């Protein structure tokens, strides 16, 4: 029997492992099963180059739980270890056997898929164990089986033992604080989380828990649309089918595979980030993929797999790693290319999906200038009815003669609520204007950003002014009222509306338009919208009153009747009701003012 002290490359390695290296205790099972898969992959590589003779037989990795003995055993039929290899790879902590193997067999068979680029994985077992035993027998002919044992102190024992088959059994004697892991459901849950796509069969309670050949490890040419859909169901059993997907498959200058799905997203959805899972050679790493996946694509679903990203990742590592930056840029390019291809090949289908994909596109245009350059070709505006879509250039061509202002800027007229703003839309259409719909949660920010990024473009909400003034605010209109009548009308409205945030003006509009039109300052409304979204530095705008312009259409015939009303009280109430109706149309009449309006309306109807 050999006894000795584990040769660590740092002092007091076990407290470091327990407290700092692995904050999530579930990780121990991932590390040990990953090591078992490594050992199996090594055997397959050796067999492929003729070093291991004959049939390698069953290569399943098995996890066994014994509640009575309070043990968890991870068994493989991989390469196993000799006594010398146990001494080298187990006793010399932080010396990675997998790393050495990869260097030797790089490019041969499964050698390129060795998971373990880490030397401390095995020692995660001491997070949950009072004692760990290794029973192992090397694949090498004439090799003798050995048993290694350690109780978490630097002392170990290594001796010969009996073991009929090649491979390794790791036996964890679970400590009192970790008895939660002596539960079948808990172990199954951990295995399904970390090991569900490992490339070697993993068995627990006589059932295989993993899919060894998930869709992303296959070539796109080997997969049908149904295969992609079925894999999505495997990942998200209760989700609606995805809109489309992108298959990532890069081997230079970095390794990256994966499938990203575009889910159905509407403006009423719950934000569900962390739906993309990161793997390293089919080993689950994390669902926190910020920095790897561009921020505007964090709402995508799916899997990315890169051996260039280590299993034990940290945020600081991801932010500084050059491969991560390249992967991030590549994903952005692939998404842009896919959207561009869809737009060019089947524009109608692209437009049908715009309600869901527009959110990603707009967010990307705001946050990534390279994506913006590509997206300018396929970003579309939906006309209010939804029957027609325009790219920016198409909108410019269609509307420039009517919708270019004095500063030579294209004025894009838009609505945020087509139903509420319908009367304004109809007035704008009557002038020949084209109104588009911008009603998603990102549009307030999108409008501000695009005004800065697009040349000679200005966005104006259709209710920001009366239709006559939407493009050029200096249009002069003639009133049919006399100066005396206009003066009386101004006096009536002024007496009823004394709020400092409401400005009353008289204009001679088309007689068919509304008698009173309420509009709000475009700038102030935008600031309030941004503040409400939490996206404005000037959050104090949220508490400021709306800046309201009340335009009295002096040409509407109702005013001749009101001016002829002999009853002064009724005359004032009629004027106030017209003002309140206009405020109500913009959801600006609330509380006591709304109650007063209802009561006044009932009273006026009773006097008819």
Automatic annotation (TrEMBL):
PROSITE patterns attached to this UniProt entry: HSP90
Top-rank lineage group of the source organism: Bacteria
Entry binding sites for ATP: 31, 35, 76, 81, 96-97, 168, 315
Short name of one Pfam family: HSP90
Record-level Gene Ontology MF annotations: ATP binding; ATP hydrolysis activity; ATP-dependent protein folding chaperone; unfolded protein binding
Keyword line: ATP-binding, Chaperone, Cytoplasm, Nucleotide-binding, Stress response
Database matches in Gene3D superfamilies: 3.30.230.80, 3.40.50.11260, Heat shock protein 90, C-terminal domain, Histidine kinase-like ATPase, C-terminal domain
NCBIfam families attached to this UniProt entry: PRK05218.1
Similarity comment: Belongs to the heat shock protein 90 family.
Name of the protein in its database record: Chaperone protein HtpG
Organism in which the protein naturally occurs: Chitinophaga cymbidii
